[in-house]
């Protein structure tokens, strides 16, 4: 799930024209050694904090449908995690860094969720909203100064971004459907001593149960409608 959020952010930031203008978008830790090796204008999106939002933890299990609308598995509810990123801009002059950071802020400030077109893998499959909060005052994460101290670098202008994304629950395959009626045998024996042949009961309401009382094809259950994603889409 984490790498899928990374790619979603990369796609969203790409809309600002950064990569088209030759600016690299990386997810490295901006350490002192990394900064010394940098040779091109760069926007660094560093993930430094991961926490579960326990207030959104659910219970029970949901049904998973195949392309024909049949139940093929049951899945426990997803668990939600808050991913906090530190975004910095790197260039030869502070003015250029501020311009790059301004482009990033303008792009992220217009979205309160990752656009559906940038969701891949499990995030796309779950069909749930992946919320995004840029430079929010309520970011519950280590202070930027503590992060820079841990990285061994000097304090730099940065943008805090929090993404709340679901981690898919565990799936368990559903049992195969019942395809034939109950077989009933009598305790009575035939004259040759063999047990009396059984009789297979037919399902009620089946117009053509088939040979020996077999049931008609299983009824298809319609797949539930996908939940509409909330939030504005840029």
What features would you highlight for this structure?
234 residues; alpha+beta; STM4215-like; 2 domains; five-stranded mixed beta sheet; three-stranded antiparallel beta sheet; 5 helices; 21% helix; disordered C terminus
- State the CATH topology of the largest domain: STM4215-like
User: SSE string, helix = H, strand = E?
Assistant: HEHEEEEHHEHEEEE
The second-level CATH architecture of the largest domain is 2-Layer Sandwich
- Total DSSP helices: 5
Strand order of the largest sheet: 1-2-5-7-6
Structural class: alpha+beta
**pLDDT average, as an integer?**
80
**Beta-strand fraction estimate:** 15-25%
Spans where pLDDT lies below 50 across 5 or more residues? 205-219, 230-234
The radius of gyration is 28 Å
Biggest sheet: strands, sense, closure?
A: 5 strands, mixed
The total number of structural domains is: 2
**Number of strand elements:** 10
Task: Describe the fold and architecture.
With about 230 residues, the chain is an alpha+beta fold. It folds into two domains: about 1-60 and about 80-165, 2-Layer Sandwich (STM4215-like); about 180-185 and about 200-215, no CATH class. The protein has helices spanning about 1-15, 30-35, 95-110, 120-125, 145-150, and strands at about 25, 40-50, 60-65, 70-75, 80-90, 130-135, 160-165, 170-175, 185, 200. The strands form three sheets. The chain has a five-stranded mixed beta sheet with strand order 1-2-5-7-6. A three-stranded antiparallel beta sheet has the order 3-4-8, with no helix packed on it. A two-stranded antiparallel sheet has the order 9-10. The longest helix is centred in the middle third of the chain and has 15 residues, at about 95-110. The protein is elongated. Mean pLDDT is about 80; it is low at about 205-220 and about 230-234.
